[in-house]
Amino acid sequence: MKREQKRKKKRVKAVMTVFLVLVSVIAAAVLIVWNVFVVKKVVVEGNEFYSAQQIERMVLDDEYSWNSLYVYLKYRLLDEEDVPFVDMLTVTLDDPRTLRIHVYEKGILGSFYISSIGQNAYFDRDGFVVETSVEEIADVPRITGISCDEVVLYEKLPLREPGVLGGLLNLTQTLKKYELLPEEIHYEDNLEPTLSYGDIRVTMGALGHLPQKVARISAVLPQISGMIGTLHMETWTPDTTDIVFERAKTESTPSGEESPDGTEEPRGEGDPSGEGGVEMPRGEGEPGGEGEPETPRGEGDPGAEGEPEMPREAEEPQEAGESDAADTPGDGESF
Asked: Given 3.90.1520, 3.40.50, 3.30.1050, 3.30.1370, which CATH number is that of 108-247?
Protein backbone atom coordinates (compact mmCIF):
# COMPACT_ATOMS: atom_id res chain seq x y z
CA MET A 1 0.00 0.00 0.00
CA LYS A 2 2.72 2.42 0.99
CA ARG A 3 4.73 1.45 -2.09
CA GLU A 4 1.79 2.32 -4.39
CA GLN A 5 1.40 5.70 -2.71
CA LYS A 6 5.11 6.38 -3.20
CA ARG A 7 4.91 5.42 -6.87
CA LYS A 8 1.86 7.65 -7.34
CA LYS A 9 3.65 10.56 -5.70
CA LYS A 10 6.65 10.04 -7.96
CA ARG A 11 4.43 10.07 -11.07
CA VAL A 12 2.70 13.25 -9.96
CA LYS A 13 6.04 14.82 -9.18
CA ALA A 14 7.39 13.89 -12.62
CA VAL A 15 4.31 15.27 -14.36
CA MET A 16 4.52 18.49 -12.40
CA THR A 17 8.22 18.79 -13.20
CA VAL A 18 7.56 18.36 -16.91
CA PHE A 19 4.68 20.83 -16.73
CA LEU A 20 6.80 23.42 -14.96
CA VAL A 21 9.61 22.97 -17.46
CA LEU A 22 7.16 23.44 -20.33
CA VAL A 23 5.65 26.49 -18.68
CA SER A 24 9.11 27.94 -18.13
CA VAL A 25 10.08 27.31 -21.76
CA ILE A 26 6.86 28.82 -23.02
CA ALA A 27 7.23 31.81 -20.73
CA ALA A 28 10.80 32.32 -21.87
CA ALA A 29 9.70 32.05 -25.50
CA VAL A 30 6.90 34.54 -24.93
CA LEU A 31 9.28 36.95 -23.30
CA ILE A 32 11.72 36.59 -26.18
CA VAL A 33 8.99 37.05 -28.78
CA TRP A 34 7.55 39.98 -26.86
CA ASN A 35 10.80 41.80 -26.20
CA VAL A 36 13.07 40.76 -29.08
CA PHE A 37 10.81 40.48 -32.15
CA VAL A 38 9.94 44.16 -32.31
CA VAL A 39 9.79 45.95 -35.67
CA LYS A 40 12.47 48.60 -35.74
CA LYS A 41 13.26 48.69 -39.46
CA VAL A 42 11.31 47.93 -42.67
CA VAL A 43 13.01 47.45 -46.04
CA VAL A 44 10.76 47.73 -49.12
CA GLU A 45 11.94 46.68 -52.57
CA GLY A 46 10.38 46.19 -56.01
CA ASN A 47 7.93 49.09 -55.63
CA GLU A 48 7.29 51.66 -58.36
CA PHE A 49 3.64 52.70 -58.21
CA TYR A 50 3.54 52.92 -54.40
CA SER A 51 6.05 54.59 -52.12
CA ALA A 52 7.89 52.62 -49.43
CA GLN A 53 5.85 54.39 -46.75
CA GLN A 54 2.56 53.39 -48.43
CA ILE A 55 3.63 49.74 -48.65
CA GLU A 56 4.73 49.78 -45.01
CA ARG A 57 1.32 51.13 -43.93
CA MET A 58 -0.44 48.41 -45.98
CA VAL A 59 1.54 45.62 -44.31
CA LEU A 60 1.64 46.94 -40.74
CA ASP A 61 -2.10 47.48 -40.62
CA ASP A 62 -3.33 46.11 -37.25
CA GLU A 63 -2.65 46.39 -33.54
CA TYR A 64 -0.18 43.47 -33.41
CA SER A 65 1.93 44.58 -36.37
CA TRP A 66 4.56 45.97 -34.05
CA ASN A 67 5.74 42.36 -33.63
CA SER A 68 7.94 41.19 -36.51
CA LEU A 69 7.29 37.46 -35.95
CA TYR A 70 3.54 38.04 -36.00
CA VAL A 71 3.76 39.92 -39.32
CA TYR A 72 5.98 37.24 -40.84
CA LEU A 73 3.63 34.39 -39.83
CA LYS A 74 0.57 36.38 -40.93
CA TYR A 75 1.84 36.77 -44.51
CA ARG A 76 3.28 33.26 -44.49
CA LEU A 77 0.16 31.40 -43.39
CA LEU A 78 -2.80 33.61 -44.29
CA ASP A 79 -4.07 34.97 -47.61
CA GLU A 80 -3.25 38.66 -47.88
CA GLU A 81 -5.78 41.21 -49.05
CA ASP A 82 -5.68 42.32 -52.67
CA VAL A 83 -3.72 45.51 -53.24
CA PRO A 84 -4.46 47.49 -56.43
CA PHE A 85 -1.66 47.27 -59.04
CA VAL A 86 0.18 44.64 -56.95
CA ASP A 87 0.38 40.94 -57.81
CA MET A 88 1.93 39.74 -54.56
CA LEU A 89 3.70 40.84 -51.39
CA THR A 90 6.27 38.65 -49.62
CA VAL A 91 7.53 39.31 -46.08
CA THR A 92 10.77 37.91 -44.68
CA LEU A 93 12.86 38.51 -41.56
CA ASP A 94 16.40 39.79 -41.99
CA ASP A 95 16.73 39.68 -38.20
CA PRO A 96 14.23 39.83 -35.30
CA ARG A 97 13.93 43.61 -35.65
CA THR A 98 14.06 44.00 -39.47
CA LEU A 99 11.28 43.17 -41.92
CA ARG A 100 11.93 42.92 -45.66
CA ILE A 101 8.92 43.41 -47.95
CA HIS A 102 9.24 42.52 -51.63
CA VAL A 103 6.57 43.96 -53.91
CA TYR A 104 5.65 42.22 -57.16
CA GLU A 105 3.74 44.87 -59.09
CA LYS A 106 1.62 44.27 -62.14
CA GLY A 107 3.58 45.17 -65.28
CA ILE A 108 1.43 48.09 -66.42
CA LEU A 109 2.32 49.68 -69.77
CA GLY A 110 -0.64 51.98 -70.47
CA SER A 111 -4.23 52.92 -69.74
CA PHE A 112 -7.50 53.59 -71.54
CA TYR A 113 -10.34 55.65 -70.14
CA ILE A 114 -13.53 53.57 -70.31
CA SER A 115 -16.44 56.00 -70.31
CA SER A 116 -19.06 53.29 -69.68
CA ILE A 117 -17.65 52.61 -66.20
CA GLY A 118 -15.98 55.99 -65.59
CA GLN A 119 -12.63 54.33 -64.82
CA ASN A 120 -9.19 53.81 -66.31
CA ALA A 121 -8.36 50.32 -67.57
CA TYR A 122 -4.68 49.43 -67.13
CA PHE A 123 -3.10 46.78 -69.35
CA ASP A 124 0.11 44.74 -69.22
CA ARG A 125 2.73 43.74 -71.81
CA ASP A 126 0.42 41.07 -73.23
CA GLY A 127 -2.60 43.36 -73.61
CA PHE A 128 -4.54 41.93 -70.65
CA VAL A 129 -6.50 44.26 -68.39
CA VAL A 130 -4.86 43.93 -64.97
CA GLU A 131 -6.60 46.73 -63.10
CA THR A 132 -9.49 49.19 -63.34
CA SER A 133 -9.42 52.29 -61.19
CA VAL A 134 -10.49 55.92 -61.05
CA GLU A 135 -6.90 56.74 -60.09
CA GLU A 136 -4.39 57.98 -62.65
CA ILE A 137 -0.99 56.43 -62.09
CA ALA A 138 2.05 58.62 -62.76
CA ASP A 139 4.44 57.54 -65.54
CA VAL A 140 1.80 55.35 -67.20
CA PRO A 141 0.89 56.70 -70.67
CA ARG A 142 -2.70 57.47 -71.57
CA ILE A 143 -3.81 55.92 -74.86
CA THR A 144 -6.15 58.12 -76.90
CA GLY A 145 -7.53 58.10 -80.44
CA ILE A 146 -8.40 54.39 -80.20
CA SER A 147 -10.80 52.90 -77.68
CA CYS A 148 -12.90 50.00 -76.47
CA ASP A 149 -16.49 50.09 -75.23
CA GLU A 150 -15.99 47.84 -72.19
CA VAL A 151 -13.33 45.70 -70.57
CA VAL A 152 -13.21 42.56 -68.46
CA LEU A 153 -10.56 42.17 -65.77
CA TYR A 154 -7.79 39.70 -66.75
CA GLU A 155 -9.02 39.49 -70.35
CA LYS A 156 -7.47 41.07 -73.48
CA LEU A 157 -8.35 44.59 -74.54
CA PRO A 158 -11.23 44.44 -77.05
CA LEU A 159 -10.14 47.37 -79.23
CA ARG A 160 -12.55 48.63 -81.87
CA GLU A 161 -9.70 49.09 -84.34
CA PRO A 162 -8.53 45.66 -85.56
CA GLY A 163 -4.81 44.97 -85.81
CA VAL A 164 -3.74 47.95 -83.67
CA LEU A 165 -3.19 46.14 -80.37
CA GLY A 166 -0.06 44.28 -81.51
CA GLY A 167 1.62 47.49 -82.68
CA LEU A 168 0.63 49.30 -79.47
CA LEU A 169 2.12 46.56 -77.28
CA ASN A 170 5.32 46.50 -79.34
CA LEU A 171 5.59 50.29 -79.10
CA THR A 172 4.99 50.49 -75.33
CA GLN A 173 7.40 47.63 -74.59
CA THR A 174 10.14 49.25 -76.66
CA LEU A 175 9.58 52.67 -75.06
CA LYS A 176 9.70 51.11 -71.57
CA LYS A 177 12.96 49.36 -72.43
CA TYR A 178 14.54 52.74 -73.25
CA GLU A 179 12.79 54.41 -70.26
CA LEU A 180 10.94 56.71 -72.66
CA LEU A 181 7.29 56.08 -71.78
CA PRO A 182 5.47 59.33 -72.69
CA GLU A 183 2.59 61.07 -70.97
CA GLU A 184 0.26 60.23 -73.85
CA ILE A 185 0.17 58.07 -76.98
CA HIS A 186 -2.39 59.46 -79.40
CA TYR A 187 -3.44 57.64 -82.56
CA GLU A 188 -4.25 59.89 -85.51
CA ASP A 189 -6.95 59.17 -88.10
CA ASN A 190 -4.44 57.13 -90.12
CA LEU A 191 -3.78 55.04 -86.94
CA GLU A 192 -0.19 56.25 -86.67
CA PRO A 193 0.89 57.14 -83.11
CA THR A 194 2.09 60.50 -81.79
CA LEU A 195 3.96 60.62 -78.48
CA SER A 196 3.67 63.56 -76.07
CA TYR A 197 6.51 64.59 -73.75
CA GLY A 198 5.35 67.85 -72.20
CA ASP A 199 5.48 70.49 -74.95
CA ILE A 200 7.25 68.16 -77.39
CA ARG A 201 5.31 65.91 -79.74
CA VAL A 202 6.94 63.03 -81.63
CA THR A 203 5.16 61.83 -84.77
CA MET A 204 6.17 58.21 -85.25
CA GLY A 205 4.64 57.37 -88.63
CA ALA A 206 4.70 53.68 -89.50
CA LEU A 207 6.35 51.49 -86.84
CA GLY A 208 9.01 49.96 -89.05
CA HIS A 209 12.59 50.03 -87.65
CA LEU A 210 11.00 50.69 -84.24
CA PRO A 211 14.00 49.89 -81.98
CA GLN A 212 16.28 52.11 -84.09
CA LYS A 213 13.69 54.91 -84.11
CA VAL A 214 13.29 54.84 -80.35
CA ALA A 215 17.07 54.80 -79.90
CA ARG A 216 17.34 57.96 -82.04
CA ILE A 217 14.52 59.62 -80.09
CA SER A 218 16.39 58.82 -76.89
CA ALA A 219 19.47 60.61 -78.26
CA VAL A 220 17.61 63.67 -79.61
CA LEU A 221 15.16 64.46 -76.78
CA PRO A 222 17.83 65.78 -74.37
CA GLN A 223 18.97 68.23 -77.09
CA ILE A 224 15.50 69.78 -77.49
CA SER A 225 14.52 69.72 -73.81
CA GLY A 226 12.59 72.86 -72.86
CA MET A 227 11.59 73.65 -76.46
CA ILE A 228 8.10 73.58 -77.96
CA GLY A 229 7.45 71.80 -81.23
CA THR A 230 7.23 68.54 -83.15
CA LEU A 231 9.94 65.96 -83.77
CA HIS A 232 9.24 64.28 -87.10
CA MET A 233 10.08 60.58 -87.29
CA GLU A 234 7.58 59.65 -90.01
CA THR A 235 10.09 59.24 -92.81
CA TRP A 236 13.14 58.27 -90.77
CA THR A 237 14.95 55.09 -91.73
CA PRO A 238 18.49 53.89 -90.98
CA ASP A 239 19.39 55.13 -94.51
CA THR A 240 17.80 58.60 -94.15
CA THR A 241 19.34 59.66 -90.88
CA ASP A 242 18.25 63.34 -90.71
CA ILE A 243 15.52 64.11 -88.18
CA VAL A 244 13.61 67.41 -88.38
CA PHE A 245 12.40 69.26 -85.29
CA GLU A 246 9.73 71.82 -86.18
CA ARG A 247 9.51 74.61 -83.65
CA ALA A 248 6.04 75.83 -82.73
CA LYS A 249 5.17 79.31 -84.03
CA THR A 250 4.84 82.13 -81.52
CA GLU A 251 2.47 85.05 -81.74
CA SER A 252 5.07 87.85 -81.50
CA THR A 253 8.67 88.62 -80.71
CA PRO A 254 9.64 91.23 -78.10
CA SER A 255 12.52 92.81 -80.01
CA GLY A 256 10.59 94.27 -82.91
CA GLU A 257 7.38 94.41 -84.86
CA GLU A 258 6.11 91.36 -86.65
CA SER A 259 5.45 91.57 -90.35
CA PRO A 260 2.38 89.91 -91.92
CA ASP A 261 4.41 86.85 -92.94
CA GLY A 262 5.51 86.25 -89.34
CA THR A 263 9.10 87.56 -89.59
CA GLU A 264 10.49 90.38 -87.48
CA GLU A 265 10.99 93.70 -89.20
CA PRO A 266 14.61 94.81 -88.60
CA ARG A 267 15.40 98.23 -87.13
CA GLY A 268 18.37 100.44 -87.79
CA GLU A 269 20.91 100.67 -85.01
CA GLY A 270 20.52 103.92 -83.11
CA ASP A 271 17.32 104.89 -84.94
CA PRO A 272 15.10 106.45 -82.28
CA SER A 273 11.96 105.95 -84.30
CA GLY A 274 12.66 102.26 -84.84
CA GLU A 275 11.26 102.47 -88.39
CA GLY A 276 14.20 100.83 -90.11
CA GLY A 277 16.12 104.00 -91.06
CA VAL A 278 19.93 103.98 -90.82
CA GLU A 279 21.70 107.19 -89.85
CA MET A 280 24.46 108.03 -92.35
CA PRO A 281 27.78 109.20 -90.81
CA ARG A 282 29.20 112.52 -92.11
CA GLY A 283 32.74 113.33 -93.07
CA GLU A 284 34.60 116.32 -91.63
CA GLY A 285 33.87 119.55 -93.56
CA GLU A 286 31.09 117.92 -95.51
CA PRO A 287 28.36 120.15 -96.92
CA GLY A 288 25.16 119.83 -95.00
CA GLY A 289 26.94 120.57 -91.72
CA GLU A 290 25.68 122.88 -89.07
CA GLY A 291 23.52 125.70 -90.49
CA GLU A 292 23.59 124.35 -94.06
CA PRO A 293 21.01 122.16 -95.70
CA GLU A 294 22.31 118.79 -96.74
CA THR A 295 22.59 118.34 -100.49
CA PRO A 296 21.67 114.79 -101.49
CA ARG A 297 24.12 113.23 -103.88
CA GLY A 298 23.04 110.82 -106.53
CA GLU A 299 24.29 107.25 -106.33
CA GLY A 300 27.54 106.96 -108.23
CA ASP A 301 27.90 110.77 -108.52
CA PRO A 302 31.59 111.61 -108.19
CA GLY A 303 32.40 114.13 -105.51
CA ALA A 304 34.10 117.45 -106.22
CA GLU A 305 37.86 117.45 -106.40
CA GLY A 306 39.39 117.72 -102.98
CA GLU A 307 36.08 117.25 -101.29
CA PRO A 308 36.09 114.47 -98.71
CA GLU A 309 34.14 111.44 -99.82
CA MET A 310 31.14 110.53 -97.74
CA PRO A 311 31.35 107.08 -96.20
CA ARG A 312 28.71 104.75 -97.50
CA GLU A 313 26.77 102.06 -95.71
CA ALA A 314 28.41 98.70 -96.32
CA GLU A 315 25.13 96.86 -96.48
CA GLU A 316 21.60 97.97 -97.19
CA PRO A 317 19.14 97.31 -94.35
CA GLN A 318 17.06 94.21 -94.88
CA GLU A 319 13.51 94.56 -96.00
CA ALA A 320 10.75 93.08 -93.92
CA GLY A 321 10.58 89.35 -94.45
CA GLU A 322 14.27 89.06 -95.47
CA SER A 323 15.59 88.19 -91.99
CA ASP A 324 17.53 85.00 -91.59
CA ALA A 325 15.13 82.09 -92.02
CA ALA A 326 16.72 80.17 -89.17
CA ASP A 327 15.53 82.89 -86.73
CA THR A 328 11.88 82.67 -87.63
CA PRO A 329 9.67 80.69 -85.25
CA GLY A 330 8.36 77.55 -86.90
CA ASP A 331 11.51 76.72 -88.84
CA GLY A 332 12.89 73.18 -88.61
CA GLU A 333 16.15 71.97 -87.17
CA SER A 334 17.89 68.83 -88.33
CA PHE A 335 19.59 66.32 -86.08
From this structure: 3.40.50
